[in-house]
């Protein structure tokens, strides 16, 4: 067991760094010492899915299910693989993940759990680090794959805010951070800020920040800075002015509605 502990740490570190090939080798080493190490088996299943080796992942998950028949997480992973097989998907999209991709930058990045998620067939194909696109529809922002498959929507408060920022010329990037058949978590990153919202924070700690912060010229930490916190009132005024000017740089609109899976 003393030998396994450092291997487990290395395997977890490799997965965090999205080095799936290394993660597979380390977990295989663990199984040589402990054939029924359920954590190593599960990590092997996950690492192989991320590496696009779906059939190999299926074998590991079946082995894990034999050890823990009532494990819902394992059952869901096998359901995901079943969906992929039914769609004749042999490999997932290969993503060369930058280890610093999910590095947090206060005010410029935000991790968000999507609402009204799409069909399982779409969610099953998502991989960590996969780039997604944002599409503005009226007062909501949809998240889609680059092939325009519907993934889900940003929550109302964030949708409202980003709609204004995008109309003002801001550009945001989105990446898959976590995903399963029931929910998806995305990482949003400010790529470019529009001129009309230059002094406003894209992702304040509190989206309902009051006017005092705005009028005092203070940022979220209470220190005077170049950026100010925009309030709901300011958002409404800005939205109205942008709508009148038809200044819609940096976003797409689509009239066709797509129903999320119930």
Structure overview:
The structure is a single chain. With 262 residues, the chain is an alpha+beta fold. The chain folds into two domains: 4-86, Serine Threonine Protein Phosphatase 5, Tetratricopeptide repeat (Alpha Horseshoe), CATH 1.25.40; 109-245, 2-Layer Sandwich (Alpha-Beta Plaits). Helix content is 40%, strand content 15%. The protein has nine helices and six strands. The protein has helices at residues 4-16, 20-33, 38-50, 54-67, 72-86, 120-123, 156-167, 211-216, 232-245; strands at 109-113, 131-137, 140-144, 150-153, 171-179, 184-192. It has a six-stranded antiparallel sheet with strand order 1-6-5-2-3-4. Helix 1 packs antiparallel against helix 2, helix 3 (38-50) runs antiparallel to helix 4 and helix 7 (156-167) crosses helix 9 (232-245). It is elongated. Mean pLDDT is 81; it is low at 209-226 and 244-258. TPR repeats lie at residues 38-71.
């Amino acid at each position: 067991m003393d030998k396994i502990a450092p291997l487990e740490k290395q395997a977890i570190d490799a997965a965090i760094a999205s080095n799936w090939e290394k993660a597979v080798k380390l977990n295989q080493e663990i199984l040589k010492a402990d054939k029924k190490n359920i954590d190593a088996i599960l990590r092997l299943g996950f690492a192989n899915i991320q590496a696009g080796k779906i059939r190999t992942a299926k074998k590991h998950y079946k082995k894990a299910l034999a050890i823990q028949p009532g494990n819902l997480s394992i059952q869901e992973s096998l359901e995901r693989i079943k969906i992929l097989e039914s769609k004749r998907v042999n490999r997932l999209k290969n993503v060369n993940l930058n280890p610093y991709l999910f590095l947090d930058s206060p005010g410029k990045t935000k991790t968000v759990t999507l609402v009204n998620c799409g069909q399982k067939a779409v969610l099953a194909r998502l991989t960590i680090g996969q780039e997604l696109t944002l599409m503005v529809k009226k007062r909501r922002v949809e998240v889609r794959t680059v092939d325009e498959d519907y993934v889900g929507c940003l929550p109302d408060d964030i949708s409202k805010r980003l709609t204004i920022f995008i109309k003002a010329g801001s550009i945001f990037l989105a990446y898959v951070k976590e995903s399963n058949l029931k929910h998806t978590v995305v990482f949003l990153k400010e790529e470019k800020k529009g001129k009309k919202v230059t002094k406003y924070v894209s992702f304040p700690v509190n989206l309902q920040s009051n006017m005092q912060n705005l009028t005092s010229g203070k940022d979220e930490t209470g220190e005077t800075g170049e950026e100010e916190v925009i309030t709901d009132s300011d958002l409404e005024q800005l939205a109205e002015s942008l709508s009148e000017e038809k200044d819609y740089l940096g976003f797409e609109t689509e009239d066709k509605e797509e129903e999320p899976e119930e």
